[in-house]
Amino acid sequence: MDLATGESAMQSVALARVRYDATTGLVPVIVQEAKTREVLMMAYANREALKRTLATGQAWFFSRSRQEYWRKGATSGNTLNVLSIWVDCDADSLIYWVEAVGPACHTGERSCFYRTLVSDSMAEQADKLSGEVSIERSIEK
Amino acid sequence: MDLATGESAMQSVALARVRYDATTGLVPVIVQEAKTREVLMMAYANREALKRTLATGQAWFFSRSRQEYWRKGATSGNTLNVLSIWVDCDADSLIYWVEAVGPACHTGERSCFYRTLVSDSMAEQADKLSGEVSIERSIEK
C-alpha cells in the first residue's frame, strides 16, 4: 500500500495498464452481465473511477455531462457488483463483468439497449415507401 | 430512395436517431457475437460508417487514428456480418449484433477482450508485496 495514494501495488499496476484518452482522460466501459452475457449499458471511467471500482467492487464511472464521479445505483439502489474487468488488445476500452442488482437502465429496463435502431414499425413504413427491406427485419423474422 | 444521398427513407430515419458526439461526430459501437453474446471488440462509427453498415450488412467503422472509413475484414477477410443494431436509451452508443467470420482481433484471438485487467500473475506478485487480494482473483477461484 502506498500511503500517499492509498493504492495497493496491484491496483497501481492495473490502473497503469489502461490507455486513457489523451484529451479527456476517459476510457469507455462496456457493462456486461457476467451470467447471461447481456450488455447492460455503456459509460466512461477515468483512472480515479477505475480505482474506486477496483477498491470497492462496485461500478464507478465518470459523467461527461456532469463532470463528476458516480457510483451506479447510489440513488436508485440498482448497483452493479463488478466480478471481473476485461481490457482489450490495445488497452483503450474495458468490460466490467457484473452482477446487476435490479434494472441497469434509468427507464426501468434491464438493459439500456432495449431498442433496435431500425424498428419494425419504421421498416414497415419505409417498405411502403420504397419497397426495400432492412437487414434487421430479414433476420428477426 | 433519395437520389441525392442514395439513402432509403428508413435509412435516413435510422441514421437520424443516433446522437453522434457533437465534437467528433462519432458514436461508440460494441460488437457482440449474436449467438454467444460474447463481446468481440469496440470501435467507432460516424453517420457515414453506419450508413454503409446498414446498406451492406457488413460492419463499417471510422478510424480515429487514421481518420478514414474501414470495413472490418477488408484486408484480413475476417468480416463481421451485422444481423441487428441496438441503440441505447440516450441513443449515444450502439451494439452491432454480428456473425463473425474468423477471429475479430488482429492478434488472432476471437475477441479483443482476451485479458483481464488484473491478471493472476500480477495479483500473486502484489499479494506477496502487500497481502491484499483483488476482486478478480477472489471471484475467479
Report on this model:
2 copies of one chain form a homodimer. Chain A contains 4 helices and 7 strands, in the order αββαβββββαα. The mean pLDDT of chain A is about 90. In chain A, strand 1 and strand 2 form a beta hairpin. The longest helix of chain A is centred in the C-terminal third of the chain and has 11 residues. In chain A, the strands form 2 sheets. Chain A has a 4-stranded mixed sheet, with helices on one face. Helices cover about 25% and strands about 30% of the residues of chain A. The first copy, chain A, is of the alpha+beta class and about 140 residues long. At the A-B interface, helix 1, strand 1, strand 2, strand 5 and strand 7 of A face helix 1, strand 1, strand 2, strand 5 and strand 7 of B.
User: Count of helices of chain A?
Assistant: 4
Low-confidence stretches of chain A: none
Name the beta content range of chain A: 25-35%
What's the SSE pattern of chain A?
HEEHEEEEEHH
Average pLDDT rating of chain A: 88
The separation of the N and C termini of chain A measures 56 Å
Query: Which two chains form the greatest contact, residue counts included?
Result: A-B, 56 and 56 residues
Oligomeric organization of the protein chains: homodimer
CA radius of gyration of chain A: 19 Å
| Percent helix range of chain A | 25-40%
Gross geometry of chain A: globular
Query: Major sheet of chain A: order of its strands?
Result: 2-1-6-5
Spell out the key features of this protein.
homodimer, alpha+beta, 141 residues
